[in-house]
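Running co-folding for zinc ion.
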Amino acid sequence: MTDLARTKDILSELISFPTVSTDSNLDMIQHMGALLYDIGASVDIYADDSGTKANLFATIGPDRDGGILLSGHSDVVPVADQDWRSDPFQLYEADDKLYGRGTCDMKGFIAATLAMAPEFARRELSRPIHFAFTHDEETGCIGAQTLVSELKARGIKPGIAVIGEPTMMRIIEGHKGCCEYTTRFSGLEGHGSAPDRGVNAAEYAVRYVSRLLEIREELKGRAPGNSRFDPPWTTLNIGRVTGGVAHNVIVGKSEVEWEFRPVQSDDYDYVTSEITRYAETVLLPAMRAICPDASIETETIGEVTGLEPMPENEARDLVAGLTGSNDADVVAFGTEAGLFQSLGLSAVVCGPGSIDQAHKPDEYIELKQLSACLDMLKGLGRKVAA
Ligand SMILES: [Zn+2]
């Protein structure tokens, strides 16, 4: 059986697990764990607190630091309200393409790594090859966050991470982070004729938004000189502002949904500390002078760490050697790569298929993309053979 045929078979199994982020991924994780265990990998499965989600971490080769970690998320986005030509959870082949939810984002990559695992296991490897398959990437890289702290706690230090998100096998060495929040203001309702007796939550929300917009301007001046992002600075967006019932009523509750996309971790610290300081030292004291119960609370919806392009990047050099491509790019979409980078690994994103097909009905991956990915993985096996 060819490597591509094996990959197709494995992908067909993976697609049949409907691992939409809201649902359990345990069956798929156990299935992959069994495949890897059978070829002699050491396999650890870490369930989350709910017991319905898990990460898988497996290793082939010597038990030592500096390994190469191949990473993919097991969850997929929902298919509800999408019009599919075929069953999204049954692999369907036509015109040299494989259709199904998750084919490009990103079970195709995972299937390719599993198809090559027996070959890795047959070789005498000089450094370990790790498999990291996570849950809940699509809802804010939640699984990868716990996996990264698990690896830290166990003292496991891989050297390189390759995240196989769909890039058409191009090497991506940087992306912005993405941090989303909902901030809720609770004031004191009252009649519009006596504004001084109430605490108008919408007015405080507006002041909060104004400070965020000032910070947005400040961020433009903080862009690193060599930034390759477009635009080169950290952006900030106000996505939704709500509150109030009628013209003549003081607003009791108001909400602001906002996000920012840091190009460097310093900007993350800057935005969060500046806006928190403003809320706590300026807005809240003024609100509480009238109503002691007034509050400002920020809920974190998701924080995806950015991948900062680095001048020295072993992961980039390794993958460039394997794919024969010398360019490395930056992209607009977020991945788990930044989390692995924060663990001290050098990381790149490189995987089969196109992000254009991700999250859409009739999601597909081209067979030639899977072949290109298999070539890279085969090269990797040769490269780390002792
Ligand atoms: Zn993805």
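Result summary
The two ends are 26 Å apart (CA to CA).
The longest strand covers residues 295-304.
Job closed.
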